[in-house]
Design goal:
Elements (H helix, E strand, L loop, with lengths): L1 H73 L4 H7 L1 E13 L32 E13 L7 E9 L1 H8 L19 E12 L6 E9 L19 H6 L3 E11 L4 E9 L15 E10 L3 E11 L20 E11 L5 E13 L9 E14 L4 E12 L16 E13 L4 E14 L7 E6 L9 E4 L1 E12 L1
Length: about 475
């Protein structure tokens, strides 16, 4: 009996002691199971949250796209989308120039505000005044660029100042009584570009069409002062090349080869070929073939047409009495080479001809050609040094130099320019320049550039003295915005 009692007591103790252990084991299993369930629920919640967030983004994008479609479809609200793509650029430039010949600039009615341009007025198109402050150009440009998603756009450039006066009047000399600018040298506006552009989906890169007024495709220098190494423009720019055209232009880049082509048809007016609507029904044809990579670039351009005329190639009224304006052409070659990040160079060659008579073109055709070489070296991030050398040959009055318009006359003009530019701030630049020009006229006097004093019975208006060379210096401030 005692043994049974003892076994029963021992069994009871084992039961009492093992129960908590069993409960503990069971609780641990339940907790682990609950934890796994919670973790699984948490993963499902996170996945659902990500899905909801993604759906929200899709809905917002869809609403934004619908809003854009509604804007473009229903008008006034589409202005916001239009303004987002609109690109704006511009600058203000002013200068002062001094001519070391110290020519007379004021003598009553015979004053000479074109002292730097020479007697023929063929050079210094935008800086013709001696010892005079001037507003060179206030340039304002707007463009709606084009691409595969937005194939239609436009470009508009408006310029004010001395540049506008020269472009608008199609010559180099300033008339104080000129009605177009109210007798003020810097009170002119000129529309440099105003065209509609459209990307034609024909090639892999598309063909860009421009319809309206656009800048010329020839030359290394342009009217925009910020795009040139030097302050003054060279002789090829002012004597041989047009500045802008009115008509149609098509250009494209062929794949990734670097090859570009351009073709256009423009008006060719009788006197002012750039701004006339079309006085003589004549047209000029533009063509260009180009190629470039990261270091080297080249472009060959041709302009030919009936009554085509370069902007300043006539040397003033009556300088070409034999001209009956039949046809003229220009071949322009531009080579660029940028060997490193600090150095940029270009070479520009022009050959031009003008047929004066359809009955005897072989005996009555004028020729002119020239070459210009220029380069810029960035000394520091703010300081740059540039130089330009030019030679222009006029074989029989192509450019209309005074006293050298006969068919047997030859004229050679040389020019050397040095310019230093320094960025005062990210937007403000100051430039200083020194330039030397000289001329040689075969068979006649070399006198071309204005000199100080008077010479009774001399060749110039007011009997001013003339000489065959001149040196000028100038300073320009440019603020870009």
């Amino acid at each position: 009996m005692r043994t049974i009692t003892r076994l029963f007591a021992m069994s009871a103790c084992m039961i009492l002691l093992g129960a908590p252990l069993a409960i503990a084991n069971q609780s641990s299993e339940e907790i682990a199971e609950m934890r796994a369930i919670v973790e699984q629920l948490q993963s499902e919640v996170d996945a659902q949250s990500e899905q909801i967030e993604h759906q929200g983004e899709v809905i917002r994008d869809a609403r934004l796209e619908q809003s854009r479609e509604d804007d473009s479809r229903f008008g006034a609200s589409g202005i916001s989308s239009f303004l987002q793509r609109l690109e704006i650029e511009g600058w203000v430039a002013g200068s002062w120039f001094w001519n070391y010949n110290n020519p007379r600039i004021s003598s009553g009615p015979s004053r000479n505000p074109n002292a730097n341009s020479g007697w023929s007025r063929n050079i210094y198109p935008y800086h013709s005044s001696h010892n005079s402050f001037q507003v060179d150009q206030i340039w304002f440009g707007l463009e709606h660029p084009i691409d595969e998603e937005n194939r239609a756009g436009f470009r508009f450039d408006l310029v004010y100042g001395a540049t506008a006066w020269n472009l608008g009047n199609n010559n180099l000399w300033f008339d104080p009584d000129d009605a177009d600018c109210n007798g003020n040298f810097t009170s002119c506006f000129y529309v440099s570009q105003a065209y509609i552009q459209y990307l034609i989906p024909f090639t892999s890169n598309g063909i860009t069409m421009k319809a309206g007024r656009f800048n010329t495709i020839v030359g290394a220098e342009v009217a925009q002062t910020t795009a040139n190494f030097n302050i003054t423009r060279g002789m090829l720019f002012s004597v041989m090349q047009p500045v802008d055209h009115l008509g149609l232009l098509f250009d494209t880049e062929w794949g990734e080869s670097g090859v570009t082509t351009a073709f256009g048809v423009v008006n060719s007016g009788l006197n002012d070929w750039r701004t006339d609507p079309d006085l003589n029904k004549g047209k000029a044809i533009l063509g260009q073939l180009g190629w470039s990579n990261d270091t080297i670039g080249s472009a060959v351009s041709v302009i030919w047409g009936d009554d085509f005329r370069t902007p300043f190639a006539t040397g003033g009224p009556g300088s070409c009495p034999r001209c009956d304006n039949h046809s003229q052409g220009l071949v322009d070659v531009v080579l660029t080479w940028d060997p490193n990040e600090k150095t940029s160079t270009w070479l520009n060659f022009d050959y031009g001809w003008r047929q004066l008579s359809k009955t005897r073109p072989e005996d009555d055709t004028q020729h002119g050609y020239g070459v210009a070489v220029a380069g810029r070296y960035a000394v520091t991030e703010r300081l740059g040094l540039s130089s330009r050398f030019e030679w222009l040959a006029d074989k029989n009055g192509f450019a209309g130099w005074v006293n050298a318009t006969d068919e047997d006359e030859e004229t050679d003009v040389f020019s050397l320019t040095g310019t230093a530019d320094y960025a005062l701030t990210n937007n403000l630049m100051v430039r200083a320049e020194v330039r030397w020009d000289t001329i040689r006229k075969k068979g006649v006097s070399d006198d071309e550039f204005w000199d100080r004093g008077t010479d009774e019975g001399g060749p110039g208006p007011g009997n001013r003295k003339l000489k065959r060379d001149q040196v000028t210096t100038g300073v320009e401030l440019v603020y870009e915005f």
